[in-house]
UniProtKB/TrEMBL annotation:
Keywords: Cell membrane, Chaperone, Membrane, Protein transport, Transmembrane, Transmembrane helix, Transport. It is a multi-pass membrane protein. GO terms for biological process: protein insertion into membrane; protein transport. Belongs to the OXA1/ALB3/YidC family. Type 1 subfamily. This is Membrane protein insertase YidC. GO terms for cellular component: plasma membrane. Residues 276-320 are annotated as: Disordered. Interacts with the Sec translocase complex via SecD. Specifically interacts with transmembrane segments of nascent integral membrane proteins during membrane integration. The gene is yidC. The chain crosses the membrane at residues 39-60, 114-131, 174-195, 220-246. Required for the insertion and/or proper folding and/or complex formation of integral membrane proteins into the membrane. Involved in integration of membrane proteins that insert both dependently and independently of the Sec translocase complex, as well as at least some lipoproteins. Aids folding of multispanning membrane proteins. NCBIfam families: PRK01315.1, yidC_oxa1_cterm.
Length: 320
């Protein structure tokens, strides 16, 4: 079973090693000491940017699927109410079949919102394996040759914080630089994750979504996930924590952009966006938007008007 799992993870680890070593080579060519901890941290940050940027199409697909699921939510609830109290297998199968037909007509499915997470998990597991192998000074499956792995194993931040150490190891050795660094990383990492989820739940949820059982589960997960991060931060090496830190900050920025520009219709964020668009129209001298107006066309109109900046009188071209 383990051999089969390793075989599945091999291409993921190969790609991760190629990107990580590629960034490390670029940083070395830029003149930075390749054996320094900072060079490897920047390489890990570059790996995060590549992985998360490659997942943007999945994130967009998730947003579209969530919107469609929101549109059919009333119809799904009617079906669930229709079979409420019926616990026999035939009724349950009929209900599931009707619900799936609704999702199929809408062009989505209940699992679409989980797609980015399902894709990200094997990538994160592959990264943990790549970094753990390098921490032991052993060659990886591809570009991470043994000399690079040994260099990674001996790398430290400011010659004080070895990247292969964990918070657990730092406490065991009373290594205060490691303890302080791991503590700061943990606080930032957990805060970024908590704030990201809090913004989604408070600003990007409709009243109907807030009344659903899924919303109540999300509120519980809002506090469970940071607790899980605290436990994992205790055992993960600092190099892996840096990956998680940059990834969480990337997620936070991405979600703030999505909430600001692509909020769920009917949410507080959507109302705030409509107010911003209304103020823009007022500044540009445009009439108010009808409730049934095409938001995309209006936004394009505003952007086109903003591009057409009036010429200043007395410019060189006028004087000529």
């Amino acid at each position: 079973m383990l051999e089969f799992f390793d075989m599945l993870m091999w291409p993921i680890k190969w790609l991760l090693e190629a990107v990580l070593v590629g960034f490390h080579w670029v940083i070395e060519q830029a003149g930075m000491d390749p054996a320094s901890g900072l060079a490897w941290i920047l390489s890990i940050a570059g790996l995060v940017l590549v992985v998360r940027t490659a997942m943007i199409p999945l994130t967009i697909k998730q947003i579209k699927s969530s919107r469609k699921a929101l549109e059919v939510a009333p119809e799904v609830k009617k079906i669930q109410d229709k079979y409420k109290g019926k616990k026999d297998n035939l009724s349950r199968e009929a209900m599931n079949r009707e619900v799936m037909d609704v999702y199929k007509r809408a062009g989505t499915n209940p699992m679409a919102s989980c797609l980015p997470l399902l894709v990200q998990m094997p990538i994160f597991l592959g990264l943990v394996q790549v970094l753990n192998t390098a921490n032991q000074g052993r060659a990886g499956v591809g570009a991470m040759a043994e000399p690079l792995a040994l260099q990674f194993q001996q790398a430290s931040l400011f010659d004080l914080v070895p990247l292969h150490m964990s918070l657990e190891a730092g406490v065991a050795d009373w290594n205060w630089p490691v303890i302080l660094t791991a503590g700061i990383l943990t606080v930032i990492m957990v805060s970024a994750q908590f704030y990201t989820q809090l913004q989604i739940m408070t600003k990007n949820q409709t009243p109907q979504m807030k009344e659903s059982p899924m919303y109540k589960q999300q509120r519980i997960m809002l506090y469970i996930i940071p607790f899980f991060l605290l436990i994992t931060a205790w055992i993960f090496p600092l190099a892996t924590m840096f990956y998680w830190l940059v990834s969480n900050i990337y997620t936070l920025v991405q979600q703030l952009i999505i909430i600001n520009r692509m909020p769920n219709p009917g949410s507080d964020a959507a109302r705030a966006r409509e107010e911003r668009m209304a103020r823009k129209r007022q500044r540009l001298g445009l009439p108010p938007v009808d409730e049934d107006g095409d938001t995309a066309e209006e936004e394009n109109l505003i952007q086109n008007l903003q591009r057409k900046q009036p010429r200043r009188k007395g410019s060189r071209s006028d004087r000529k």
